[in-house]
Amino acid sequence: MSSILDYDFYAYPNICSGLKALDTIPRELLSFQASNPLILKYQKDPSRLERQLKAACCTSQIVLGPICRIPENLSKDDISTIVDTMKESSVDSIIAMGSGTIQSVAKLVNSLYCCDFALEEIESLPCDSFTPLPHIAVLDERIDGREATNRLLLDEYRLHHDSLYPEYIVIDERMMASGRDKESAASAIISLTQTCEAYRDYLLTPVIASWTKSSLHFLGEYQSMSTKQAKIALINAAVATQIAHSNIPPGPVTTISEMLAISGFCSEAQAMATLLPHFLSQLTFDKGSPLDESFDEIAMICSDVPWNDIQQMISELLKNYERYIHCSKTSGIITSLIRQTHRLMQHSNNTEIHTLITDLVSHTTSQTVMGGEL
Amino acid sequence: MRLPPFSQFCSRTRIISGEHALERLPGLLSSMSVKNPLLLTDKGLEAAGLLRLVIDHIEKGKLPAPLIFTDIPPDSDLQTVNEIAHLYREKGCDSIIALGGGSVIDTAKAVNIVVSCAEPDAQVLDLRDFSGADVITQRLLPLIVLPTTAGTGSEATIVAVIKDHENNRKMLFTSNFLQPTATILDPDLTLTLPPFLTAAVGMDALTHAIEAYTCLGKNPLSDGMSLQAIRMIIDNLEYSVAHPEDRSSRLALAIGANLAGQAFSNSMVGIIHTVGHTVGSICGVHHGLCMSILLPYGLEYNLHKIEKELKELSLYLCGEQKEAIGTIAAIRSLNDRLKKATAGRHVTRLHDVLDRDKRSAVRPDHLPIIAVEALGDGSHFYNPEQIDYDDILYLLNAAYWGYPLDRELIQKGHE
Fold first, then answer.
1. What is the fold, at CATH topology level, of the domain defined by A14-175?
2. Fold of B14-189
3. The pLDDT of residue A303
4. Closest C-alpha among B215, B222, B218, B213 to residue B386
């Protein structure tokens, strides 16, 4: 019989966080015997980030390789161009600067380059491991929940493969922008959703429990801090929970939210913020249950922060996210959600998803969700 | 808790855990495309039937029997490492399986350095060239670890210690690349461990977790590992000592030790290990026993700097939130219960540790020598309070006679 002590936990990236974390990149590249990295960054991001990376590398033997600037609406041609650039320059590593799409692009081009596949052949990527180029992920606050995992999602391309884990994760406050509060709030919701799903996984294995505990610590710090330090805490939370979450099957909230996002109805964070309270309402926090004990522990350990109850934290994070969504827009999102989730129900055999959606529908027909009037 | 200004966390070892997890070994070897592994272990484990158990599993997977080396001494040494590396090359091996405790695992890590870092045509590679921190700068060959003690956590750490008899010193190797590729935690591998050793290595793991949670290198990721490790060890150690045949508690202890290893590998340890290493090397006292004796004293020494952390840990060690001294009292009480459960073999004072001839292993005249040597141990760099000779000697005397430390009599911390 399976128990929480039976598990297979896959290896995960080395994480470097804090002041001057960017400066560790040359050392790390050298440890991979790499000296010609491809740089991926968002086109709209300031060029000071490139300069900072160059400055970090200037005292080493590293010469930055080609720099590919990713446009907002990435096309298939853009992907092919990046792979061609990698071949022409014989790059030996990838540094992807930014969260979200940029990391999925890094994983995708890494796979195509190393397996010598065309984009159309990506579905037939070998099931056994291939050796990817070392992938260094320099994260910012625009988290999509997959950066530190073995998964990628890019338009219609979805891959789940153990060779997709980045090798090294850098969290440096120089990567944080002064604005982006909306993005940070969305990232917090994604992290919180993944943490809750990992916590309520039917087998809360000890190693997953420890990563999710760390994530909750970081989320607590995010709430109690301000400015860039808060964002550092947030990204740490995201990374910790992604590592836990990548070792379990995605839960119902993630599954539905991902599908809704692919359909273009709303962002994943919007869907998660709507679905999460309903998911949580199904959890039983019975006195003495392992789940209850775990949350109790966190609440007690975090007694020095303004909130003293983990459920309070969840509610605060949701409220924080709500601030960035107009109510009128919210009601439209929820209507779409209901329509879409009804459709999903017809195709899904997952009883958890059925329960969640039934609950959502019964609530949203008469009540306020996330404070937005329907 | 506030975020540390800088932290780094690395734990790349794949962990396969469970009753009958050993059955996964052939599949794991195949998934790594490993064809000719070298299996390292020691004579004791061979005699205990554990080597046979592992070979049976490999053969059941229709894989060829591995090359086997069983002559690993209790203290890994340079000569053994070179001998094994020579064998590895001569037989064209492509990976290493380590079956054993700290010594076997450290030997395997050191052999992996030699066989991975040498140029293919190089005849000799001096392991000493790689001694120190972060000297190894490349990925190593596949290493699968099957730990047989639930204590050292070596299957999860970035550290290896090898004795250099020629120069009479212990060489320390630290590098993220030393973390094994995979580890299998199976209770069948620890079932033969006698109760007093189970108690000692369990307390070693508990010390790793507590020092990781209280020392200067702590970070929220290592904290998560520490807390989970402490919970698992506290919930299972006494039961496992009393019921050595119970697989579930054996497995839980192995997981706890593994998590503690991941925690301290990323946050380092402190004064308890500083003094414990030296007591072990000068007096030949079992490392786990040193840790269990010294743990409450080390925490008392640091008490004024770690009150908040110890208060948090009381939830795990006392079952409810108490003051910091409550946590230390709970550890003393646990040691006392383990002493009773092992018919007195799990001693709680240095004075009571006996050698093989039933004589005192630690004598009062050893203490000043230990205090001097401890100052040279690198573990204290991450201790929350500084150390000096007089304070270490005072701590040693307290642990020798079994009286609690009086913080007022400790010099450091009053400046």
1. Rossmann fold (3.40.50)
2. Rossmann fold (3.40.50)
3. 37
4. B215
Alpha helices in B247-286 (DSSP H): 247-267, 271-283
pLDDT (0 to 100) of residue A217:
80
| Residue B322 CB-density burial (10 A; 0-12 exposed, 13-18 middle, 19+ buried) | middle
- Residue identified by tokens 């988290």 is A143
Residue ranges, CATH 3.40.50.1970, chain B: 14-189
Q: Are A63 and A36 in contact (CB under 8 A)?
A: yes
User: How far apart (Å, rounded) are the C-alpha atoms in residues A191 and A27?
Assistant: 30
Q: Which of B1, B16, B248 sits opposite A8 (nearest CB)?
A: B16
Query: What residue ranges of chain B are covered by domains with CATH 1.20.1090.10?
Result: 195-409
Mutate to test the interface with A, among B1, B145, B155, B185 (most CBs of A within 10 A): B1
Residue A368: band (very low, low, confident or very high) from pLDDT cuts 50, 70, 90? very low
Average pLDDT over residues A177-184: 76
Nearest CA in chain A to B15: A9
The pLDDT tens digits for B81-139 are 999 999 999 999 999 999 999 999 999 999 999 999 877 666 557 788 888 887 887 88
Regarding pTM above 0.80, the answer is yes
CATH architecture for residues A181-364:
Up-down Bundle (1.20)
What is the Cα–Cα distance from B156 to B154, expressed in whole angstroms? 5
Alpha-carbon gap: A88 to the closest alpha carbon of chain B (Å): 26
Closest residue to A221, CB basis, from B3, B16, B315: B3
- ipTM for this model: 0.84
Q: Do A15 and B8 touch (CB under 8 A)?
A: yes
- CATH 1.20.1090.10 in chain A, residue ranges: 181-364
Q: The domain B195-409 is classified under which CATH number: 3.40.309.10, 1.10.260.40, 2.60.40.10, 1.20.1090.10? A: 1.20.1090.10
> Which residues on chain A are in Cβ contact (under 8 Å) with B221?
15, 211, 214, 236, 240
Taking CB atoms and an 8 Å cutoff, what residues of chain A touch B5? 18-19
Structure tokens at A199: 């916590």
pLDDT at res. A9: 72
Span A255-301, pLDDT tens digits: 878 877 777 767 888 888 877 776 766 555 444 444 445 455 544 44
Q: Classify residue B403 by its DSSP letter.
A: -
For residue B18, the distance in angstroms to the closest alpha carbon of chain A comes to 4
Q: Where in chain A is the domain with CATH 3.40.50.1970?
A: 14-175
Residues of A in contact with B321 (CB under 8 A): 300
3-state secondary structure of A62: coil
The answer to whether B138 faces chain A, any CB pair under 8 Å, is: yes
Q: Is the Cβ of B31 closer than 8 Å to some Cβ of chain A?
A: yes
